[in-house]
């Protein structure tokens, strides 16, 4: 039964991340090159996922945990999300496209938490089996990008949304085959603090945990420059099949996900997360160095892409495991909700928005425009050419160098102030001694 379950869960993760990989990487190119949205608008579009992440705790806490079985709710969200995806291609103005994208993300993001919760509920040995099941998510992301790129050549086309929508409906139907998972808190009173994970704020009393949260938020600001700008960068360089080539990042993801348990055992959290942040610094300096390097551009860009496994697994996954290790049983769920809110919610929104603003400011022939009281103020970016240079419409060195230095600053902050927690077995021994002291006459 466990073997059949693991196959179903792995298939679910494959479909779930196929959807994400089919549109998330290439959307910026479609919005910029086909719909001609401005950089700030593209940044806000990527921030729609962050809004979905901030809405998700309310949805899961108020509805999913109290009224509906997880597999049925996953089916409903998958089918509804597919329908919303089918509407997006018909919306060609930002004012219409953006609200619909937010609505879609509000249906998709909860499936991530619900899927994880369902898997952890039914796996007999979650510590052993969950990472293996989760590797199919990277394979699904690769399949989504490769199918869009090689099958449809759809990076600059609305076909990406039709592809994601069709697979989303398939995910919804497949969810009905998952094991029955009834709501956990039927009839229970759930506080707002519990829904938002505010119970986990007690962990901030630990200086190391507080520094960890600050660093995770700060690293998200440069981090999302990659997701907002990368596909457009290689498109302007004249790359073909960009989504398929960028899916090499997920191949790296699978490799380093397998290596992560060994790294944590041998190096601990501080050194592992340090390597993850260092990989982001290296990634952005590689991208900045690739600009105007005719012969070396492609190797440098591929090196930056292949760092993805270190960037993501040694930072995000290791960070989630650190939070799980620091939390006790009572606040474990709240702690995971809190870190997700920081990484994929607030951090994502700020990072994506600034990445879009940076893209706009580094567009050739562009100007900075904003309102002050009743005045429209325009500041020309005089240092940039007034017309595109061939197919290059942006100052890519300027776009990449700022997140490089920003990530480097976070790296220094983390190195100086974060302290590795004691090994779990040591904490258990200390806790046992405290219990013995309390029981002593």
Write a structural description.
The chain has about 450 residues and is mainly alpha-helical. It folds into 2 domains: about 1-190, Growth Hormone, Chain: A; about 195-440, MFS general substrate transporter like domains (Growth Hormone, Chain: A), CATH 1.20.1250.20. The protein contains 16 helices and 2 strands. The chain has a two-stranded antiparallel ribbon with strand order 1-2. Strand 1 (about 365-370) and strand 2 form a beta hairpin. The chain is globular, with a radius of gyration of 22 Å. The model is unreliable at about 370-385 and about 425-440 (pLDDT under 50).
Concise structural overview:
The chain is mainly α and 441 residues long. The chain has helices at 2-23, 27-34, 39-64, 70-87, 94-122, 126-152, 159-175, 192-196, 207-236, 242-246, 248-290, 297-306, 308-326, 332-361, 396-417, 424-439, and strands at residues 367-372, 375-380.
Instruction: Please identify the top-level CATH class of the largest domain.
Output: Mainly Alpha
User: What Rg, in angstroms, do the CA atoms define?
Assistant: 22 Å
Going across the biggest sheet, name each strand in turn: 1-2
In oligomeric terms, what are we looking at? single chain
- pLDDT below 50 for ≥5 consecutive residues: which ranges? 368-383, 426-441
Largest sheet: 2 strands, antiparallel
Report the strand count: 2
Q: Span from first to last CA?
A: 50 Å
Estimate the helix proportion, in percent. Answer: over 70%
| CATH-defined superfamily of the largest domain | MFS general substrate transporter like domains
Taken as a percent bin, the fraction of beta residues is under 5%
